[in-house]
Amino acid sequence: MKFIADLHVHSKYSRATAKNLDLENLYLWAQYKGIHIVGTGDFVHPKWFKELEEKLEPAESGLFKLKDKFAKPIDAQIPKTCRGEVRFMLTVEISNIYKRHDKVRKVHNLIFSPSMKAAQKIQTKLGSIGNISSDGRPILGLDSYDLLKITLEADARNLFVPAHIWTPWFSALGSMGGFDSMQDAFGDLTKHIFAVETGLSSDPPMNWRLKQLDDFILVSNSDAHSPSKLGREANIFDTEFSYDGIYKALSDKDDKGLVLTLEFFPEEGKYHYDGHRNCQVRWDPKETIKHKGICSVCGKPVTVGVMSRVEALADRSDGIKSKRWRPYQNIVALPSLIAEAKDMTGTASKAVQEAYMNILNKLGNEFYILMDCPLADIQRAAGDVLAEGINRMRQGKVDIAAGYDGEFGTIKIFESGERENIEQQMSLF
After folding, report:
1. What are the backbone angles phi and psi of residue 412, rounded to the nearest 5°?
2. Closest by alpha carbon to 264, among 156, 141, 369, 411?
3. Which of 246, 260, 291 has the alpha carbon at shortest distance from 62?
């Protein structure tokens, strides 16, 4: 069975997340987006775990569904064109901050669990180590190695995935708080890690440049802090619709169950380039080398982004694929494309939101519209300019001012005057 999964999200109990980031809204937005399996996020948080127990019930093996009494009130809000089955998988992100080799390490790691019992074992153990109640993504003074050991001891079918492995401040290979290799981070337990998460600021070809990552399959997830950000990256599987199907697709090197990842254009990620946001200094790796890593405005070291970090650790030329490579497709969120078509800044305006819901009602879920919907249908439903914008996105014809030092990149698809010309040309045609 073919399905889309986004397995790195958060709840309303994580810091800097939306107040409406609950199971009901994840269920709603998963259908808007066309996602079939959503991570619960934050399962070690006591209050969130209690909600999971209250609102979810077992479905397919290792998966859960929203109970009818919580799902039915939401169903009325979902366009008929978007309705589909949604399942949840138990997931959590842990922030590990600890000292190793005389350096403070800051690494975020994901854990996927096949059962409430397995999740609760992890919760109980971590609760004895540190504070798991103040943040849905708890900050623990626990070595990543020890977290992996706890994960495996709780249940052999738990999956451990280093999160957004290139993010400068909080990742296994990040420039500020990470290591130079996965082996350095996880030692003799590295063999129990089957997948790594690329993060928004890198894409598969960047990761393929490291031979040390050849044994890992690359996954992509949204790391959503609000329901509307669900699916900004995701994974497409074609395998058994179950936790075991996903486990096998990630762990078995001969299994082809993960067929495609859906990716940000990496330049859009907020740590792609180097620089200083406050100084408005944005540099590619060559420019950083030219300035010896020192900001030309304030004289302090710049934040070294993902592109530079990959270049520093790469031991393979561009264009060579890793042993476990999978196809990928770059996408731009539909609200962003609508805003670009309307020549508007941002996606929060009433006009953009109304247009978004209108096109979902007419055509179907967001992923269908972005990837598969015939352009002629998009033209009829939403106009020539949006159809052309989606066409250019599918072909990778976008212009992006790269993100840096915590600021997202900005995408531009149309030049000044192009929108009017497109409408006039199609009108004449």
Report:
1. -130, 125
2. 411
3. 246
Determine if the pTM surpasses 0.90: yes
How do beta strands 2-6 and 37-39 pair? parallel
Distances (CA, A) of 316 to 16, 182, 305: 38, 17, 19
> Tell me, what amino acid is at 77?
Q
- Residue 263: strand pairing partners: 330
pLDDT tens-digit series, residues 38-92: 999 999 999 999 999 999 999 999 999 999 999 999 999 999 999 999 999 999 9
DSSP assignment string, 338-352: HHHHTT-SSS-SHHH
Question: What stretch of H or E contains 50?
Answer: helix 46-55
Whether the CB-CB separation of 396 and 388 falls below 8 Å is answered with no
| Cβ–Cβ < 8 Å for 119, 189 | no
Buried b (16+ CB within 10 A) or exposed e, 43-54: bbbeebbebbee
How far, in Å, CA of 247 to CA of 251, rounded? Answer: 6
Terminal CA-to-CA distance of the chain, rounded, Å?
41
